[in-house]
User: What shape does this take?
Amino acid sequence: MKLEKCVTIDNVNRNLLNIRYAVRGPIVDRALQIERELAKGASKPFNRVVRANIGDCHALGQKPITFIRQVLALVSCPQLMNSPDLPADVKDRATEILQDCTQGSVGAYSPSAGLMIVRRHIVEYLEARDGVSASLEDIYLGSGASDLIKSVLTLFSGVVDGKPPAVMIPIPQYPLFSGTLAELGINQANYYLDEEDNWALQVEELERSYQEASEHSRVVALVVINPGNPTGQVLSRQNIEEIIIFAHKHNLFILADEVYQENIISKPFYSFKKVMHELGAPYSDMELASFVTCSKGWAAECGLRGAFLELTRLSPPVRSVFAASRGVMQCPTVLGQCVLDCIVRPPRRGETSFAQWREEREKIARLLAERASTAYSTFNDIPGYSCNPIEGSMFAFPQVEIPALAQEEAADLDMSPDEFYCLRLLEETGVCVVPGTGFGQRPGTFHFRTTILHSREEFQHMMESITRFHNNFLNRFS
Ligand SMILES: Cc1ncc(COP(=O)(O)O)c(C=O)c1O
Assistant: This one.
């Protein structure tokens, strides 16, 4: 007798059916398939796929920071402690971390909020960044910012006073937010970033979104991604003040996704915490969740999964509820916590590893700034393209005019015009980018997101391929 499945597509959690994550979507699947075809000797107009779909620096050739990997080597294998090949400050750091691990092993669970030593270093890092005191009790470590963002959003799921909750998110947005809200059954209230004003947040648009969502939902929180993904802007201090004042007016909890704060290219970064503090009461008393991750910045250790959350001014009972919900997960990966420790407390001047750390870090920053400037000028030179300056993060998000004929062909194939464009780009050049649809965009506008992390040669090859492709595309469809 055929065994019936317990979970079927008809009874599976309905919320999961609504999750979309274009960064690993169908175009990326097709890219992987093309890579396999090339490996089998298929003939294509290109000899390799250029993966520009994901902000994963190490996957694109960035070398790990030596200090981080040496500390990881030692905490994982303390038998190396007497090795003459490892510098004294690496040994000191590894010893300090291991002293905080149960039985001196990174293989033991840590407290669910994270190792005390790492949280202490995070407090020092935040105090130096913001000039405001930070509290150990507000710091939670996680296995990536995705893990922590989901935990915070979970606070808001559930109907109150007969209305479902809604969270305001930017459009374009990083689809972790839309995906997690869908999974948790929380309504998504979209507000559009202003492309004409370098992707700023306009208060009138925030207000429009809030009022529209309030007709059917209880709007509880506002997500801001700064520096922006996919948009690459860094918000001005004045804009942050306006956002805080707006959130205060409507009693909204702010989730500041600040994971790209160490990927600053051309404009200063201000944390929401600092600006709230400097605005003074009542703004300095608002609840705030802010996220930092090992996956971005100069370390870019995506695979090691480390991040932290600063969760300020939560009411004490909610703080206990949150701590209990984090406790259920045991603890974040301890190796990820060690990476985080090296990021928030890197080698200091006078310590053995300082010079090498500084050189490695500066090289990464130089390359990022160089790519940002090349991407900006190349995209703005292509007819029908426009691209805002890339002030931070690791992405460009150019707008592309797609001719009417191409839009019709896309419709025939049941695709959006930008998906059609990106698929053609992939098939003809091997360049894999993510269509704007995956992040959201104003109706009638078309974009794609590309990472700007490749080696100089690969990046040049990518830019030339896109330019050539677009000219052919215009010839064919205009
Ligand atoms: C804006 C933003 N937030 C959060 C994340 C999640 O990062 P992770 O879970 O790797 O820490 C990412 C990853 O790309 C991101 O771009």
